[in-house]
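Researcher: Here's the sequence for the chain we discussed earlier.
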Amino acid sequence: MLYAVLSGALTSALGYVLWYRVLQHMRAMTASTVQLSAPVIAVIAGILLLGEAVTRDLLLASVLILGGILLVLRYSRK
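Model: Thanks. This is the structure I predict for it:
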């Protein structure tokens, strides 16, 4: 149990450290928009690590999310 808690704490800390390092080099608009890709990243992790099934709805939702992010980043005021 202790190993699981420490493992989770370590990976969470690593994720936050990496995010804040990258954040220093991004505009606020870009950073906040890119964060919206978290569900797609979670889905990819579920497929790769847990063997989750890839469904049509899952693919469609991922394409819509990433397409929306692309539209915002491409056409936002600079």
